[in-house]
Amino acid sequence: MPPLPSGTVTFHYTDIEGSTRLWETQREAKTPALGRHDALLRQCSEAHGGNVVKTLGDGVHAVFVTASNALRAALAAQQALRAEAWSKHAQIRVRMALHTGTAELREGDYYGPTLNRAARLMAIGHGGQTLLSAATYDLCSDQLPPGVSLKPLGEYSLKDLARPETVFQLCHLDLPQAFPPLKTLLAPMDADTPSIAVLPFVNMSREEENEYFADGLAEELLNVLSRIRGLRVASRTSAFSFKGTKVDIPTVAQKLNVATVLEGSVRKAGKRVRITAQLVEVATDSHLWSRTYDRDLNDIFAVQDDIARSVVQELQAALLGEKPDAPASAAVKAELQAAAKGRGANAKAYALYLQGRFVADRITRDDLAKGIQYFREALELDPGYALAWAELSRAHLNEAGYSWAPLESGFGKARMAAERALELEPDLAEAYVALGLVQMNYDWDWQRADASFRRALSLAPGNAEVLRGAAVLAGTLGRNDEAVALARRAVALDPLSMSAHRSLGARCLGAGLLDEAEAVVKKAIEFSPQGGLLHAWLGRVHLAQGRIEEAREAFEKEVIEYYYLQGLAVVAYAQGRQAESDNALRQLIDKHAQESAYQVAEVYAYRGETDLAFAWLERAYAQRDPGLSSIRSNALLRNLHGDPRWRAFLEKMRLAE
Length: 657
Description:
Radius of gyration: 28 Å
Structural class: alpha/beta
Strand content: 5-15%
Number of strands: 15
Number of helices: 27
Mean pLDDT: 84
Distance between the termini: 60 Å
């Protein structure tokens, strides 16, 4: 074998899909098939100037001096594997990955992070699919073999690697073109787990104000489907980000990492409504199911049930091979009835509820007030509408949390509404979330909040909002591994959500995972460059990394003024500019003392002024400042940890270990 190359090289990693199952069930057929597989891959590698470094299990690791030769070898290997007459008992389908970089060559083998990235990239592919990293793409995209194209699949997080990877797929007419979504860490795809995105329904009505109805219908279907066990549903924030765009279904599915998409339209005129819905299987670009309903508005709940039942049955039949017989249909019906708990029975109240959700989701002072009014009108018509009570609770909580209502009365109203929802429907996940947020952010009753979120998780494990709330609480209680895992799962279900990424960034910062925190917060900034608290979190990450000037640059871009001033006060002190730090701190106190006592305490603590820091912590305590829930994992407060008052304050907050 010729000497192995050093310097910048391209690695070609391969693996047989489903090999463990083949070894267990078809060992006699698999043994000769594996030998033929090894021979084909070695021939294709060596024919294009590559060196097979080693075989490992069912995989081959080869190295090439040039990326273009590695690509040609991968193409030839996939073509040869596809043309081979495999035994029907051992059909060999191989996933491949190409990644370029430097690696340490030692005693006939390679070591280092470049190999890790190649292996992680291969792990997210499917049999018959060849993936390229951005580094490899850049080196060979302008010298492709005839008939070859490189399809961009988007940016993905790879297991245990902080920096996301932009992934490309090798395409050729001789090879399959359609594959399921990539099996990434943040959105794991399992062949046994059907996945779906519910897109906002198109409003075909003449009146634009009926848009709330079209959005609400899709959202209600999404909420019901997300409670079905064994079904992964893309969260509302991500799915609805495509509203009003002309993005095609395959692109939507790739970005949301789902195999099926439910889309539709609504035409509402007076008391009549026409609803069209269709379920699309992305890999085959075919309709699994479609139907049009012409109904009276009073029948809207029956229409929703029919759509949801049909979707679940079609997914089970198409992806799991289950027969839609009578017992299965009855089981689906019972599961959907359980998932639909909490909704009302009055069509007018339902319309008001949808209007309330539509405006309250904007989270402005005026819109929250309008949303509360809509929810109250809905509850006047249907006092037993548990979901409306839960949403009323969330609206009051947001009003108080943003200081648009008095803290005590706002959280009091939120608690009352959540408790009323649970009286009406004891198994309503949304109500447990609402109550848990009150218990966590105002009561500081961590034990009850933990119980509320655990109950919500048991009822709706596929709800990204539930996961985010549970992640915050786990971080508050020092369960950092759990907090990060929950926040990652929330991002998996809500991959285009700024809030989900911001929350994961905060959890990673609290757990000391600084590289991941940086990558995730930067992704959140891509989604919303002017989003509040994003640049402040990035500044804190850079501060923890010791990258002080980059921290300053981040803090200077923060759009929420008191976080901007706090960041400047901290970073100026870190750079030895005491007068500048004093000036920023003075402005923070003069302008925002009422809502930022906790942030003032953080600055004093970072500057080592412990007496003033504890004084402002006491002030924050008296104001019931929600920020205090983060004190255990807050790096800015570390200077206080050796003071006897720190332990006493933690005990006062009921957060002492």
